[in-house]
């Protein structure tokens, strides 16, 4: 009898959750943002130069400043949604945020589940190691321990390319950096900005770039089917790339300019 | 917001889920055995006459029981590496679990020992039993039988908290789940599968502890009553 009651209660709770998540006649996201006067932009914190906390414990970085500029130009309030790397795609899939600006590379796999704008920045991903490690390509990684951040392009490229390597996955770049700084790792697959942050803290034996895995085009991600919002952001990227505002933000943090042909890339 | 469930796309990851679940179980079993040993000695130390030993054991228990497990993991993992001791990931993860579960076990075992009537110990002394004999036959065995249910509960809890070790890159069930969901983009389904697996493993552990208890406590097996 008690079990029956419990089951009934559980069933009701599940049904209630279901209804809560059920389709409410879905309006256009751009209209919703304008009506609420607030845009939710997700950023992955703990990525050097892109999104990090400065000395005054304030979120900053090129991704965060780009988010601020978008909100300002839209004329709405910005709500920063701070997430981890592995939560980037699910956050957009489940519409926990309207946009995602979090060093997310545009890949065919991701395109199946979220929409991307045109590229807004680029990123070199690399394999780096200490002096003593002779590494020229993926084959040389076999039998070695290599650290990287989970759910990144690094993760899928190393997993596919170096089947014999022991891949050590951390949940975010900050933990990966700590692991490298504390001496847990001698070889990492990451991006140049993260590598710089590591070497700053381990001057005695810096990690050197062994080979460049790929230059990635980063896109702003948004839920599928929000074409008006996507069009708005695409226009915004074109305008602000041409008037130099986007490059100004990027160069402030990265010490390099965005590539000239950025807008023509896919 | 409509969500179409698609469990079929997770089928190809089944071997990985299994590998993760096995690693979780492996880590739990090692941690529980070693944790029990540490717990018993720590409980004895805390009750003993040597003041410094009692203080030491007390400090260990209080520190572990009053700090978050995640912080302990980071402290041990990064702390040891900074000190120049590089452990394989598996060993480091198990070490943090032993360190954690040892303290909880110590308190449970100590509580069990406190239930032994002083008169019984005095009687054993009067009969001329040696200290190890008293501890083994008069104190430890009945008290372990008494606290066995809370001990097995604590060990199941440890199995569930082992999910946190994915933070230091241990590829146990939660670590595998995080990788699978980032590759398949089926996070909801992945975590449902993992929740079911954890539930099944917890039930399995409970059943194993029950059988083990029947085997090592003949009194309970024959009478079927709590001590």
Automatic annotation (TrEMBL), chain A:
Segments crossing the lipid bilayer: none
Pfam family, one: SBP_bac_3
SUPFAM superfamilies associated with the record: Periplasmic binding protein-like II
Signal peptide bounds: 1-27
Solute-binding protein family 3/N-terminal domain mapped to chain residues: 38-257
Gene3D superfamilies given in the database record: Periplasmic binding protein-like II
Signal listed as a keyword: yes
InterPro entries, per the entry: Solute-binding_3/MltF_N
UniProt xrefs under SMART domains: PBPb
UniProt keywords, alphabetically: Signal
Protein name: Transporter substrate-binding domain-containing protein
Origin species: Azospirillum doebereinerae
Lineage, uppermost ranks: Bacteria, Pseudomonadati, Pseudomonadota, Alphaproteobacteria, Rhodospirillales
TrEMBL record, chain B:
PROSITE patterns referenced in this protein's UniProt entry, alphabetically: ABC_TM1
Cell location: Cell inner membrane; Cell membrane
Gene3D superfamilies, per the entry: MetI-like
Membrane-crossing residue ranges in chain numbering: 20-45, 190-212
Pfam family, one: BPD_transp_1
GO CC terms in record: ATP-binding cassette (ABC) transporter complex
Segments forming domain ABC transmembrane type-1: 21-209
Keywords: Cell membrane, Membrane, Transmembrane, Transmembrane helix, Transport
Membrane topology (UniProt): Multi-pass membrane protein
GO molecular function terms attached to this record: transmembrane transporter activity
Single biological process term from Gene Ontology: amino acid transport
First-listed, main subcellular location of the protein, grouped into a coarse class: membrane
CDD domains the record matches: TM_PBP2 (cd06261)
Family of the protein in this entry: Belongs to the binding-protein-dependent transport system permease family. HisMQ subfamily.
Protein name: Amino acid ABC transporter permease
Lineage: Bacteria, Pseudomonadati, Pseudomonadota, Alphaproteobacteria, Rhodospirillales
